[in-house]
Amino acid sequence: MAYFRRTGATTFQPTPLVGGAWKTDEQHVAPTLGLLAHLVEADRQARGRDDLAPLRLSYDIWGPYRLEEMETAVRVVRPGRGVELVEAEVSCSGRKVVTLRAWLGQVGDTTALAGGGPAPLPGPDETPAWDPTTDWPGGLVASIEVRRTLEAPGRGVVWVRTAHPLVEDEEVGALARFAGLLDVANGMSVRSDPRDVAFPNLDLTAHLHRLPAGEWLGLDTTVTFGSAGAGLTSAVLHDVDGAFGTNAQSLVVRPLR
User: Fold this and answer.
1) Which pTM was predicted?
2) Selecting from 3.30.70.270, 2.40.30.170, 2.40.160.210, 2.60.40.420, what CATH number does the domain 4-107+121-255 have?
3) The Acyl-CoA thioesterase-like C-terminal domain covers which part of the protein (predicted)?
């Protein structure tokens, strides 16, 4: 089963795999983030801009949304020869629910200049398996495979992958598949039990210094709670070849009991 099934030129139906973790009758936002990255990539290719690659993916999450058909749209906000800004959005039940603003930059060979990234993580084969359903309900969480080393509350190294395609019967690139997993950074190295504290994220921004490859996403994650109801989940993003970017999520922190 895939996470989404295309129902029209711009519409998609979520499957039960998209069931949320905070509320199982709502969508988990992670697959939607992957879907929007896929639409930006498909639009770029349709316009013949294979000379561009994503440098930043910045998502705003406008609120929860149910497991219902979604309408999508993509537009070029700032065209250009060397850089472009592309915006994609998803609406559900007549309401905008997630927006992506993606900066794309021209591809070039800078191999001779490459360097400065953090050290590689211990790989997925060196990291113990962990069942995320011990902390979270929902179809999305049950659909992923996780390896985790938890160093302290809110601090850990996680590897995650999924065997499920993002969109049924549709070719999806590596970036979109990875983007569809980025949001789980906020739930795999928790600082507090989600049965005791709610800490949903309002946004997610990933900065990339290269495109990822393979099937495993590595998350070197730190979760911080402030003293006035705000928090931050930040992660260095890895594939099996090393770091390829960073990820940040703004949190609203609310004690439940």
Assistant:
1) 0.97
2) 2.40.160.210
3) 124-253
Buried b (16+ CB within 10 A) or exposed e, 156-168: bbbbbbbebbbbe
In terms of Cα–Cα distance, which of 62, 75, 57, 85 is closest to 10? 75
Identify the burial level of 240 via C-beta atoms within 10 angstroms of its C-beta, where 0-12 means exposed, 13-18 middle and 19 or more buried: middle
Rounded Cα–Cα distance for residues 237 and 217 (Å): 7
- Positions of E strands within the chain: 4-6, 11-14, 52-61, 70-78, 83-92, 95-106, 129-130, 144-152, 155-162, 197-198, 203-208, 217-225, 230-239, 242-252, 254-255
pLDDT single digits (tens) 191-216: 999 999 999 999 999 999 999 999 99
The candidate with the shortest Cα–Cα distance to 216, out of 190, 178, 173, is 178
What residue spans define the domains of the chain?
A: 4-107+121-255
Burial class (CB in 10 A: 0-12, 13-18, 19+), 230: middle
Whether 257 has a pLDDT exceeding 90, the answer reads: no
Stretch (H or E) spanning 187: helix 185-188
Residue 162 in tokens? 């999924």
